[in-house]
Amino acid sequence: MTENAIFQPSRDPLTIALLVLPQASILEVASALDPLRNANRQLGHEAYRWRVVSPDGTPVPLTCGIELPSSGPLAHAVGAEALITVAGYRLAEVATRPLIHDLRRIAPRFGLVGGIDAAPWVLARAGLLDGYRATVHWEDLEDLAASHPDIDVVPDRFVIDRNRVTISGAAPAADFMLHLIRARHGAALARQVAASFLATVRNGHEPQIAEARDPALDPRVAQALARMEARIDLPETAAETAEAVGLSPRRLESLFRAALGTTPAAHALDLRLQAARRMLTDTTHPLADVALRTGFSSPSTLSRAFRARFGQPPGALRR
To answer: Helix 170-185 to helix 187-196 angle, to the nearest 10 degrees?
Structure first.
């Protein structure tokens, strides 16, 4: 992981411009800004500054239904040391050609350019990640790698490569900010900030999804869940999953019902249908491609399962 001067110890204030796109998550905005706010409180002075901007300077509608105030359009980000974009859903609508053009033009004016959650897609479309290592939310890893072969896509929580940072989601955004605080002001402050949020300091190279992420789960259930999440495009049968984690199909089903209230087969199918719904709303992939990428043998097979699960055909999401 190659870093730049922003990650060197410094007493100088650091300003971050956060470009928030419509349909981003409030949790990702908070995860990016609140660690900085808390670091200032712990230090007793303004070591970190930020400004929130939007594509056109107007308030940004977030996924939770509220609007986030903006201090101005993208041009108001100039003067900050870092520009970090936050994006979530409906990229086909919000990542407009003028925005891509503006990002490409303005990026050289910052010491660090980055993206959180779906925003690495936006940076990639602007050509700002070609030749870099990068990550994105785990649901998009394969798609990003296939669409942009000039990017070295890795499944890390966050990746810093020279003057680029890519962050896979809300919790990794906090991880990255703690990394930044530790680099500039020391490990003790980073631990204090993390403790304020009852969190721990996690490294960027750690996997986005850890098998033991829920201590209440039987480890074999957690292992089965991780296998399902990693095999959206090439699903295995419940019997194959059970064999892989060292259980009989009946025992794995019993553990799933006790822990999750469902069966392994039903849960795996729901994961694939949720992934299909996300692709239908957030990409322009043809239905045949969506079916292939979510492990269905044909568009018609996907359509039948989709209608049974969501009460409408896949095409209704695009109309």
So the answer is: 150
CB 117 within 8 A of CB 88: yes
Question: Can you give the pLDDT at residue 319?
Answer: 65
Q: How confident is the model at residue 119 (pLDDT cuts 50, 70, 90)?
A: very high
Alpha-carbon torsion (63, 65, 67, 73), positive or negative = positive
Backbone region of residue 80 per phi and psi (left: phi > 0; alpha: psi in -120 to 50; beta: other values): beta
Model confidence pLDDT, tens digit, residues 146-185: 889 999 999 999 999 999 999 999 999 999 999 999 999 9
CA-CA distances (angstroms) from residue 222 to 156, 164, 227, 228, 241? 19, 33, 9, 10, 12
Summarised one tens digit per residue, pLDDT across range 41-90 is 999 999 999 999 999 999 999 999 999 999 999 999 999 999 999 999 88
Structure tokens at 174: 């906090």
Taking the C-alpha atoms of residue 249 and residue 263, their distance in angstroms, rounded to an integer, is 10
Q: Find out whether 232 and 252 touch, Cβ atoms under 8 Å.
A: no
CA–CA distance, 278 with 66 (Å, rounded to integer): 21
Average pLDDT, the chain: 92
pTM: 0.79
Label the pairing between strands 112-117 and 164-167.
parallel
